[in-house]
Specification:
single chain; about 210 residues; mainly alpha; about 55% helix
Amino acid sequence: MSVTALGLVPIDELEEYPLGPEDRVDSHSWIAWPHRRWLHSPMRVKALPECRALHFDLICVSQDETPLGTLPTDTEILAKQLNLTETDFKRLCALDFGPLHGWRPVRCLDEVRLYHPVVLEMALEALSRKEDNRARNEAANRKKRLQRLRAVMMGYHKELGQNDAAVEWIDEWLVERCTGNRTASWVERAIQAWTARTLGHRLHGKPPRT
């Protein structure tokens, strides 16, 4: 990437970055670095040691930028992020393998920023891991929540506490309506709702839907 090329492409002709401001991995304090890919890359093999170090620093900087994995196009800001003068930064970027090698302009809503295909892959992988972890946590939390609810319901009515359909329906009822702690009064109300629902289905000659 040459700094002289920044801003020369009309924003409407740029591809749109696939991530937005809402895509964050703020809880991650590390990045999954493709070290083998890096070891054999032209950037590592051909760049000056200084440029290699600055290149990696920019990758780290992009992890805290918005959108995730992008950089501003302002060379003064980039230079400050690297503790360089803008003159020195532009001088290094003029090299074939400068700090911005591989970074390309991209459209982020109404703004032009820089992105690197490999850094984008890293960002997408991090977001995928975040979603996988969230799904696992939600499944584990639901399992524990059902176990606690079942134990409470057994105290009211042993047969009802052994009814999987009843436990899951009452759990969903509480998720939708109970905004605080699941106190005894809330569980009692949920059991009453289940009982009324079951009785209504029986009166109409229909089996309760689970």
